[in-house]
Amino acid sequence: MRFKSLVQNVKEIASREDISQRDAAHINALLSGIDEHLSDEERGTIARVFWSSATSPKWADLLSEHIRNCPDILFTETGYQVPPWMAEPYVRSQIERRSEAMLNLLVSIKTRNPRFYEVIAEAALIFDSRAVKKLVPLLIEYAKTPYAFSKQELAAILPRLASVDLIPEAMELGYQMVSFRPDPRAQEKITQRLADPTDWTAMLEPLPKFDDWEYQEVLVKGVRPLADSAPLQTGKTLINAVREMIQLKDLSQEEGVDSSNDNSEIWCGRVDQSDRAYLEPKAALVHTLTYACEKVYERAEGDRDVIEELDAELRQAKFRIFDRIRYHLYSRHALHAVEWIREAILTYADFADGPYGYEFQQMTRLACEQVGLSLLTEAERTKIFDQILSGPDKQRFKAWLGADFTEDKYTRRQRYFWLTQFTPFARVLFGKYDVLYKQLSTETPPPTDDDYSPYSVGESKTGASRSPRSTEDLLAATDEDLIAYLNEWEDEHRDEKQWWVDISFAGLGRAFAEAIQLQPRRFLQWRERWQRIERPIYLRYAIETASKRVKEGQQDELEEWIRLCSWIVARKDSISDPNIKISETSRMAPSWDSARRAVVDLIEACISKEINVSAEWRAQIFELLKVICTSSDRYLDQNKPIITPRDYLTDAINTTRGRALENLISYGWWVRRQQGQEDAVSEVFDVLQIRFDEKPPLSIPEYTLLAVSLGRLYGLNPRWVQEHISQFFPHSNREIWRAAFNGFLSFNQPYREWFSSIQPEFEFALENADLSEDESKGRSNFANNLGWHIFVHHLWGQFDSHRDFLEVFYARTGPKQWAPLFDQVGRSLRATKTVNEDLVNRFKEFFETRLRVGNEEELKEFTFWLEAECLDAEWRLRALSRVLDITKGRGRSASMLVERLRKLADNQPDLVVECFAKLTQAASKQTHFYILPEPAKGILNIGLTSKNPKTIENAELAQDNLLRTGHLEYLNLEAAK
């Protein structure tokens, strides 16, 4: 009996409403494994077919144990797996029918399977109040479990519970949904903080029980509607959740630390709405709490007891965030909260030095505007205003500014402080206080509400720098004053009002660059004045501006810029003491590296194809390159890596001398474009010879760069490269040789003309290099690149009169190296439209050789061979069939193979169906076996309607193979018999 027939029989029985004892016994035997002729995989497919087709409610009684058998999660070394619950489709269908029998079955199941909890959530939205109450304990388990695909289904359940008058249950479930769990690294961070109390990375970060986006969904679609129905109860529940979340953020209550200061302005700038692009779960929870509290006020309708109960709950919670919420509520209902507002203002502890928070000042301002003078007595206001005038603390401000302190700066700070502190009280000022405020307001516009937030709304605080003087101020200075200012200014500091902004050398450098861009003719006349600038950073910005202007077409300025470049590249880092740190911002210990690199970038722009400056600059550009290419480079000379793990080519192109060496080669091709192919560009090779002669010695990154550029150099002077090839790849230093030769193999394709020169390197590699495990995890590593180059030269017959290095390569390597090469050969064939007969025969000989070895890992990479239209289709299909005999259908891209097979099926139906049948053998042997249904169905239909009995047999075999593994989409085919 075909497996397909069994599937169809089970499906037919499942669809019956009247069920005989014989039918029930038959299905039970299949599901239980009593029928031993089925494998576990086949039994699983039968279960899926049955439960997705069953309709009769009688199956709930007849097969209750199979329904109850919802498998628990399976723990693995890397996490856990969630097995399928076969009965799930049937259970859902019965829930939709509101089956009491199914409900009773559900509450008796014990499992942590997320599929089960999703079904429970669905049931809670369908059944009546009495039934839903039974499900609440399971819903709470769902909210608490760490094992879930998604918990967004819970969002709709809270308003559902409220709608069926299960308010206490809704609160219990809601609390479990919104409450946070401890930071998983809590113990590690506590230990870290004890070792270093200043380590900010040790701050605890409690997490919600949902993904961030789901948590937001729950709050908006679940908790807020619940607050609409039961605002006070929801508010009290959320207060507990917020308080416990903040407690989970505390490492420990350290002595002297105000436990009420929760730093909430940092993680929740507004208590009622988002003030940033990404909404943190902590802030989202506070916003929802505020929403619930607002609903309490709206729904109270004069019921003072309800509002007072809420206010008491907020006060008892202690933390600052709850005071902020109270102030927010008072500001919205000032006339109903006058006494509370008075209390908040009169107990404010620091009018003399403590800036107001956003909510406090808004509450105060609105209360003064709406309540007026009766809010505070004149004596109370006098006391507050005098406190304001006594601040801010002068000694603290002086300590903060240090040497930069002046009386004028303090006076400006003081007057602005008075303005911000008086503004919320503007409507109730009187006498001298009112006169002073009006005077202050003429000096500086009064602050808005947003100005009282420590983090401006909508602004990203990722760090910035600014010049101490504007570009306009710099341009207004005389040349002498400007140079003196650039040399003498060194007051780097953090902006007093915008703590995230640094007043820095970089900011001044950018302003200087803008000044050059605005008045280029002025600065092009500086000449020797440039040499009086003592901080290299400003010359770096000047040359960067020059590059920008050259790219914009201002080539007439090159003479002056190159004159400055010549002076810069002649500079040397004067400090050799390793204990003294050199820097591009220092006058006493300047580092000229970044300025020299800007010169290299200017040269790169000049010789690029897009700009392509005139050949008249040849001598000057070459001299700049020669100086930099033969100068010291502290990164390269000290063998310092740029990134970790180290990449030598990255080191080369991100260092000044390495980048200059790369531009030297580009310079050669620029000269060729300008002067024609007859120009030998001998000066390029003179510099290379100097470097090969160790003046200074080439670093490993530079060797790598030259090897990568071998093709470009060969194009400029083939003979010179052939004569000096041994210097590119020095056998005496294995580390240099491997880095250089790997760079050559990675970035150059095989080339017939240089075979005789490169052949010794192949031989050296095969005799000396480690070709087993490579430090590179990808396929583009040393052994793979070497194999490809050797294969191509073998294909060209260049080993025919020599030792066959391809045989040696395979002898010295294993399947991990064979597979990438076999794959790359297939890819190259796919990309080739036509191949001459001799090469086709060599490719086929290569295939036969590898097939005789018969390594499964290697032959799995046949996919791209099948797509190679330069080879005969019949040969490709027969080759695939033989490969599948060895791999048993296993491969890396079954879906790609099936797509290609479908394209070949019209002309080669018998071979295609044969290959497809062999390919489907892997369906039960590979964990992830997937093929596109449409091309697969097309092949099956062709096979099932064939007149060739063997082809029909192969098609039926393939169909059964797919059905056995649960691919039920292949059960009913249009042409199937």
- Average predicted confidence as pLDDT: 91
Our estimate of the beta-strand percent is: under 5%
Shape annotation: flat
Extended strand count:
7
- The spatial strand order of the largest sheet comes to 5-7-6
**Helical content, roughly?**
55-70%
Main β sheet profile = 3 strands, mixed
Secondary-structure-based class equals mainly alpha
Describe this structure in words.
This protein has 977 residues and is mainly α. Among the domains are: 56 residues, no CATH class; 90 residues; 133 residues, no CATH class; 132 residues. Helix content is 60%, strand content 2%. The strands form three sheets. The chain has a three-stranded mixed beta sheet, with helices on one face. A two-stranded antiparallel sheet has the order 1-2. The two termini are 15 Å apart. About 1% of the residues have low confidence.
Show the helix and strand layout.
Blueprint: H1 3-14, H2 21-32, H3 40-53, H4 59-62, H5 64-68, E1 74-76, E2 79-81, H6 88-96, H7 100-107, H8 114-124, H9 129-144, H10 157-163, H11 167-178, E3 180-181, H12 186-195, E4 207-208, H13 212-229, H14 231-249, H15 264-267, H16 281-300, H17 304-316, H18 320-332, H19 338-346, H20 358-370, H21 378-389, H22 394-401, H23 407-422, H24 431-443, E5 464-466, H25 471-476, H26 479-488, E6 493-494, E7 501-503, H27 505-518, H28 520-524, H29 536-551, H30 558-569, H31 593-607, H32 618-629, H33 634-637, H34 648-653, H35 656-675, H36 682-692, H37 700-708, H38 710-716, H39 718-723, H40 725-728, H41 734-747, H42 755-768, H43 782-795, H44 805-812, H45 815-830, H46 837-853, H47 856-859, H48 863-866, H49 873-887, H50 894-904, H51 909-919, H52 933-944, H53 949-964
Parallel strand pairs: 5-7
Antiparallel strand pairs: 1-2, 3-4, 6-7
Helix pairs in contact: 1-3, 2-3, 6-8, 8-9, 9-11, 10-11, 10-13, 11-13, 11-14, 13-14, 13-16, 14-16, 14-17, 16-17, 18-20, 19-20, 23-24, 27-29, 29-30, 29-31, 30-32, 31-32, 31-35, 32-35, 37-41, 41-43, 43-45, 49-51, 50-51, 50-52, 51-52, 51-53, 52-53
